[in-house]
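Chain A, query sequence.
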Amino acid sequence: MTESALVGCVPSDHFGITCVRGLSPDEVLSRLSVTDQAPYPLCTPDEALQRFGSGAETPAARVCRSGEWTFLIDVDDHGVLLQSPVLTRLSMSTEAVSIWKLLDSTTRIAHAQSGELLAYYDAWHFQPAEGADPSFLNRALTDAGFFLEENWESDDWESSVSALLMLEREFGLALSSEVAKSPLPTVSLLHLQG
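Chain A, predicted structure.
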């Protein structure tokens, strides 16, 4: 399997990454209603954990731009940005994709475009993605080996690694680990908890 650059940007056992195409970080933060937090503190991953805390009860994200995408990297694996109302708001007049890996659990992926949730996939269920139009995501997941029984039975195959590689290939996501680990604007997402 080809190595995913995104794997070096997040912890291996739990993470969340949400990407919005064609919007600046300021536009994305405006859609998240966090502009009142400016000026945003610049935090490395460790500094963000110390400042904002860990766990689902204290959601926060670090923000950067790479290529045509704005990346929101969960400070801890809270999954708030994967929620349909949040992701569809981020996707208004554009496209957004989110991946969430729960500690020792499952990988979830959601894809939204123009304010509509096109597909939602939960690797725990071993079923194709569902949504308004899951065909694109299901084809990409199939190409990445998600529906092959031998992969699910293999100790070497990891759904989160394959999902990150699939997102790079299918959506053109590219982020270096140097950028992901550098001090980035960081915001609290406490108001978005569902």
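The beta strands are 15-21, 42-43, 60-66, 69-74, 95-101, 107-113, 116-122, 184-188. The mean pLDDT is 89.
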